[in-house]
């Protein structure tokens, strides 16, 4: 300001010099006259300007000052008016206003809040209110930043990242109850050369996160967390940045989701969380894996690929980045899994994963790759859950010590041979098939079991199969192992019973099932793991047997019951019916047989192969013109009586449509009208004497198998 005043004075004085020297002399003379006091001895020059007074001295001093300032150097000569000076950089900085950044938020329940700027809080904290939209703009921009602005984009609940907007436009939603979850902000134009924009968010559960800048992501993703407040500020390049510039954006590195038996799709899991169901014996059927924001979280591009081994189908093709691997709606278990990273991120990160296996629990971690494998094959073992995590190369990885994968045996790895009376040794019999001859009265005299164990296959359960035979007259042999014969090799005795067991790790993962075909009984039930199968003390020959090596996670070939007896067989009053009954099973402890040729009904108790006749009656089934339906049926409804013309039938039990067991024909008062049985005479139902039809009504459960035949 002083400089400007001084310059104004100098400009005024310079104007006076334009009048000329004579004007100045006159000014001096006038001054002398006014003073009336010319000093003695002082000469007066030709110009008459030697005298001075207070006023003339002031003027002269001003002129002198002007000369000293370099602005009146042409003493007594006219001068041109000097050009106006440009202000210095310092003076310009003193006048320049700082650039501001203003922002306004739309808040749940409150709507649009007032505009704030330069690092002030917009939104709320501690009130559990979501931000729903935001507007941002720059203010007080000088001319040199003309065309500059601010661009921003938000991540909205359900919608994901929205297109970027700029300079005060609305980003987000209103009236849709959708939370903002993350944001990016960056400067555009020439201002970006001089300033950085910093911003941080207050997020549900996490509180204030670190500062992000210049387009970096701030907030969270995939965690369903609302953004509650935001602060934004400009910082001139070279000046101190805000503290805590890390951890501005919370987003998991890897996400995964499983489809589980009975449960369907589970919620997504992230970064080594358990996904699936453990301890419930539920199979994993399908899965999806993705990197939710690979570039935002790692700084690199790329993806993730995965491959699954499916029950009955084997290895599927590789899937990637959220695609479905496995099956749904087909009840197929996933048994093994491979995972690998792809693209740039694979150069800087490793993927580690582990699976929860049925009956075993968690496997060790495996580091992903084309051949890295977690799970099992050929063991029918379901995966029930999994964990996946990404680890930056050079950081400490999880332990990979322990078992990651189990290899089972192929069906063809186990087989057996037998020695048959009069026929010698059979060829190789595939597991589950019959060794021996059934129904030909030929005894089985010995067996040899074989197991191919490839020592080069890693993680193949090791152990042995041991077996012993019970021979007629001599009893049990000692234990033999695979490849050794157990039985009678001279043809003098036959087998009556057998027991087979597994040892070592083999027994941890497999069961051995076996059953025998015995004289008079036929097939007995399935024994397993060292149980005795067959007969003893009744001199019944074993004619055949079947053996199956079954993973503990696979279904048994049949019921583990009625596999051994010391009781002689009794066929009851009807050997043919008894033999036929033992060909069928029933969901209850009873089975009803109806012979249309002999007009007989048999009631048997027990189970397939072990039926015992408990009732045997004559019946009146359908006459030739209206025969009783033939086939296998089951017991349904029942009732006290129904009327048929002039007759009444009591204690009826349905077995197929309108076909019933019921009483002989009676009069409405209950007396017998036609009590004949033992012949075909009905319209298709099976007539029984009153006590017999009532016994069925009282004792036979719904669902019991009924077999009608000729």
UniProtKB/TrEMBL annotation:
| Stretch list, region Disordered | 38-100
List the biased-composition ranges (Acidic residues). 68-95
The signal peptide annotation in the UniProt record is 1-28
InterPro entries tied to this protein: ChW, LD-transpeptidase, LD_TPept_cat_dom, Transpep_catalytic_dom
Coiled-coil region(s): none
Specify the L,D-TPase catalytic domain's residue ranges. 590-709
**Does the record carry Signal as a key word?**
yes
Report keywords, A-Z.
Cell shape, Cell wall biogenesis/degradation, Peptidoglycan synthesis, Signal, Transferase
Superkingdom classification of source = Bacteria
The record's Gene3D superfamilies line, in alphabetical order, gives: L,D-transpeptidase catalytic domain-like
Catalytic residue list: 662 (proton donor/acceptor), 685 (nucleophile)
Pathway in which this enzyme or protein is active: Cell wall biogenesis; peptidoglycan biosynthesis
Q: Which PANTHER family match?
A: L,D-TRANSPEPTIDASE, L,D-TRANSPEPTIDASE YCIB-RELATED
Protein name stated in the entry? L,D-transpeptidase family protein
* Upper lineage: Bacteria, Bacillati, Bacillota, Clostridia, Lachnospirales
């Amino acid at each position: 300001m002083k400089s400007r005043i001084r310059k104004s004075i100098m400009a005024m004085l310079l104007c006076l010099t334009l009048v000329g020297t004579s004007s100045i002399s006159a000014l001096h003379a006038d001054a002398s006259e006014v003073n009336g006091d010319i000093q003695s001895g002082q000469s007066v020059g030709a110009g008459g300007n030697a005298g001075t007074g207070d006023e003339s001295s002031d003027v002269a001093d001003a002129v002198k000052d002007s000369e000293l300032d370099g602005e009146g150097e042409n003493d007594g000569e006219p001068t041109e008016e000097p050009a106006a000076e440009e202000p210095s950089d310092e003076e310009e900085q003193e006048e320049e206003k700082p650039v501001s950044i203003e922002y306004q938020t739309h808040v749940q329940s409150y709507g649009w809040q007032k505009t704030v700027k330069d690092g002030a809080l917009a939104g709320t904290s501690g009130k559990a209110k979501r931000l729903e939209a935001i507007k941002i703009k720059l203010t007080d921009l000088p001319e040199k930043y003309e065309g500059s602005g601010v661009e921003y984009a938000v991540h909205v609940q359900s919608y994901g990242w929205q297109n970027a907007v700029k300079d005060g436009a609305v980003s987000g939603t209103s009236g849709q109850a959708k939370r903002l979850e993350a944001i990016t902000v960056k400067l555009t134009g020439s201002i970006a050369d001089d300033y950085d924009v910093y911003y941080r968010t207050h997020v549900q559960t996490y509180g204030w996160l670190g500062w992000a800048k210049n387009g970096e992501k701030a907030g969270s993703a995939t965690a369903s967390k609302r953004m509650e407040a935001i602060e934004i500020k400009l910082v001139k390049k070279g000046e101190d940045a805000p503290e805590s510039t890390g951890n501005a954006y919370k987003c998991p590195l890897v996400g995964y989701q499983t489809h589980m038996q009975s449960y369907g799709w589970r919620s997504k899991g992230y970064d080594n969380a358990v996904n699936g169901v453990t301890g419930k014996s539920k199979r994993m059927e399908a899965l999806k894996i993705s990197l939710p924001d690979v570039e935002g979280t790692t700084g690199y591009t790329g993806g993730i690929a995965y491959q699954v081994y499916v029950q009955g189908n084997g290895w599927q093709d590789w899937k990637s980045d959220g695609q479905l691997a496995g099956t749904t709606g087909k009840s197929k278990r996933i048994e093994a899994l491979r995972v690998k990273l792809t693209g740039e991120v694979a150069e800087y990160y490793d993927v580690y994963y582990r699976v929860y296996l049925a009956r075993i629990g968690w496997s060790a971690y495996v580091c992903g790759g084309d051949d890295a494998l977690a799970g099992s094959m050929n063991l029918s073992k379901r995966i029930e859950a999994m964990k996946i995590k990404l680890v930056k190369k050079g950081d400490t990885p999880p332990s990979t010590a322990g078992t990651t994968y189990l290899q089972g045996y192929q069906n063809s790895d186990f087989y057996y041979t037998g020695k048959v009376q009069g026929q010698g040794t059979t060829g190789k019999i595939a597991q589950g098939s019959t060794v021996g001859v059934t129904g030909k009265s030929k005894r089985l005299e010995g067996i040899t079991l074989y197991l191919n164990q490839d020592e080069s296959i890693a993680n193949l359960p090791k152990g042995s199969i041991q077996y012993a035979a019970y021979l007629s007259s001599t009893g049990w042999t000692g234990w033999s192992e695979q490849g050794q014969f157990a039985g009678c090799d001279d043809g003098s005795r036959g087998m009556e019973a057998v027991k087979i067991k597994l040892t070592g790790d083999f027994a941890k993962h497999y069961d051995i099932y076996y059953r025998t075909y015995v004289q008079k009984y036929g097939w007995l039930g399935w024994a397993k793991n060292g149980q005795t199968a067959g007969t003893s003390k009744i001199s019944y020959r074993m004619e055949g047997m079947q053996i199956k090596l079954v993973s503990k996670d696979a279904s048994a070939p049949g019921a583990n019951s009625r596999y051994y007896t010391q009781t002689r067989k009794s066929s009851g009053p009807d050997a043919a019916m008894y033999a036929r009954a033992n060909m069928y099973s029933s969901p209850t402890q009873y089975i009803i047989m109806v012979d249309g040729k002999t007009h007989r009904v048999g009631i048997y108790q027990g189970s397939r192969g072990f039926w015992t006749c408990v009732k045997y009656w004559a019946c009146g089934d359908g006459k030739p013109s209206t025969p009783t339906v033939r086939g296998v049926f089951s017991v349904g409804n029942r009732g006290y009586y129904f009327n048929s013309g002039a007759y009444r039938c009591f204690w009826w039990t349905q077995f197929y449509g309108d076909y019933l067991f019921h009483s002989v024909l009676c009069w409405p008062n209950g007396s017998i009208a036609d009590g004949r049985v033992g012949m075909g005479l009905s319209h298709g139902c099976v007539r029984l004497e009153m006590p017999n039809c009532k016994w069925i009504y009282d004792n036979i459960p719904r669902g019991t198998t009924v077999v009608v035949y000729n």
